[in-house]
């Protein structure tokens, strides 16, 4: 089958499966500094096999051309950050989206982080038909993932992508019957969209305890942020120490600081935010 793939490294094994077993016409991807899984690996693999890589938006005209002239059989989207134009006049169009929650619960661009924020003990991955309704298409398959105390959000994403690869292999081995057997989702109004976590929840502060800071980083990982001397940074790694500091922040290296909290200090590795600064007001 000819496939156009949309996504990043979150579900890289799924992309690799399509490259090995089908014809991938092109890859559409994006870059976001606050994502742990960027596009580095998937772009490298696409270039290795001569697959065109696009960072621009897919257009309605290009969608129509791919299905009517190029023989594309499937759009496959996996944690892609843009809504794709769906042609109403192309009967051959088929699209699938992979989403990291057990839909209809967890419609969100940040489903794992939002689930952990809410204290859920289970999440998972859903494969559903692509429709105009965000994360609202008929469900083709689902698999649950347990969230244990020792796991952070990256652990959950890694478990989800292992399940997703298995689900993709099962679907493509018997595509037509499984496509026809998709189950309808409940109406979106019963399961509201989970918004991006507020900047307050994402931000480390000096009045936090060590355990509060660790809980924040466990949930949000590299979305976690901190403001030091007027500059905002993402937190790439976090450890803790027992000793209180004589000042709020001690620079250790260019990208490493000791950050004082109420019951000791944090040992942070940082990455400066280049865009999307939190609102100062």
Automatic annotation (TrEMBL):
Q: For this protein, what is any one GO molecular function term?
A: methionyl-tRNA formyltransferase activity
Concerning InterPro entries, the annotation shows: Formyl_transf_N, Formyl_transf_N_sf
Per the record, a Pfam family?
Formyl_trans_N
Q: Which PANTHER family match?
A: METHIONYL-TRNA FORMYLTRANSFERASE, METHIONYL-TRNA FORMYLTRANSFERASE, MITOCHONDRIAL
| Protein known as | Uncharacterized protein
Natural source organism: Hungatella hathewayi
